[in-house]
Amino acid sequence: MAEVITLEKYLKRKYGGADEKFADLILKMGEIGERIKDELPNMRGKADTKNVFGEIQLVADKWADKFIIDEFRATGLVKAMASEEQEDVVQLNDKGIFNITLDPLDGSSNMKSNNLVGTMFGIYKEDLPTKGRNQIGAAYILYGPVMSLVCATKNRVNKFFYTKKGFILKQENIKLPEPGILYGAGGLRKDWLPEFRKYIEGLEAEGYKLRYGGSFVGDFNQILHYGGIFAYPALAAKPNGKLRLLAESNPMSYIIEQAGGASTNGKISILDIEPESVNQRIPTYVGNKGLIEKLEKILS
Ligand code: P6P
Question: In the prediction, which pLDDT does 16 show?
């Protein structure tokens, strides 16, 4: 029987010594996931506030945002955080080593139906906001039938499953299957740009299957495992699409690129975009390299 490698053992092996603080940071993410998972059944309903995007916040959004920021503050490891639920960068510890971007509960509108939600982290040494290429790691927690933690560093994407023994290594060095078989695209088809609609119709003609679940983490996770493309595209009335560059698109673009895939805003890798603000939205396309290259040719 294969050795059970816990998250803690794996991190110590891979990031012991000089990167011990990085290991501590990822371990904390696992602890955060355990607590959020336990709280999800209790946190229902709308808060009486809106986020900077004018979106009504759910009780769960606000609780998770505060909980995660407080947890990282208590470690002393984190200098500052840029959260989707906050108007600006939040300073935590002057002597902190890492700067973290956060989507505390991505897809929280799925909670009412108990569909997939997740937490996304981008990990930097550079001060925020900065371009996604400066990430030294990225991770997401998927609150699914099995809670999983997907954690990426340079050229390495690993997946851990939460079990009664805590998080254990499930898959090491995940690479995007080639060719892929799925596509998912947000927004209304009538609002897609004509070139994008034609591109999607081409994929359908080639037999790509539609998978769209309304949470970026859940839909991205399917592309990571089956290959294909996920898009929240530029729309007629929303040329920047819906997803947030710092909190959502950068971490997932980092992960897909370490798994051998690619990302684009229609022109260049999302990781090379210089943020204009912490809350900037960006047209987001992530998936197999060939599909992204083909899309860039069509859109540019
Ligand atoms: P729509 C969730 O609110 C989110 O930011 C992403 O997780 C998801 O991909 C998208 O919005 C879903 O948007 O328009 O399908 O509800």
Answer: 77
* Cα–Cα dist 127/107, whole Å: 27
Strand partners, 50: 56
User: What pLDDT, in 10s, does the model give residues 220-270?
Assistant: 999 999 999 999 999 999 999 999 999 999 999 999 999 999 999 999 999
Identity of residue 55: E
Probe residue for ligand 1, chosen from 106, 110, 120, 223 as the CB with the greatest number of ligand atoms within 8 Å: 106
For ligand 1, atom 3, the nearest C-alpha belongs to: 107
Distance 187 CA to ligand 1 centre (A): 9
- For the stretch 30-41, pLDDT in tens is 999 999 999 999
Q: How far is the CA of 17 from the centre of ligand 1 (A)?
A: 39
Give tens-digit pLDDT for 54-101: 888 889 999 999 999 999 999 999 999 999 999 999 999 999 999 999
Average pLDDT over residues 153-182: 97
Q: How far apart are CA 155 and CA 258, in angstroms?
A: 4
Q: Which of 271, 284, 277 is nearest to 235 (CA)?
A: 284
Q: Is 6 in the pocket of ligand 1 (CB under 6 A)?
A: no
| Predicted model pTM | 0.97
Model confidence pLDDT, tens digit, residues 187-201: 999 999 999 999 999
Q: Is 232 in the pocket of ligand 1 (CB under 6 A)?
A: yes
| Domains and their CATH numbers in the chain | 7-171 (3.30.540.10), 182-299 (3.40.190.80)
Q: Is 107 in the pocket of ligand 1 (CB under 6 A)?
A: yes
Rg of the Cα atoms in the chain: 18
Give the number of the atom of ligand 1 that is nearest the alpha carbon of residue 186: 15
The Cα 257–Cα 271 span in angstroms is 9
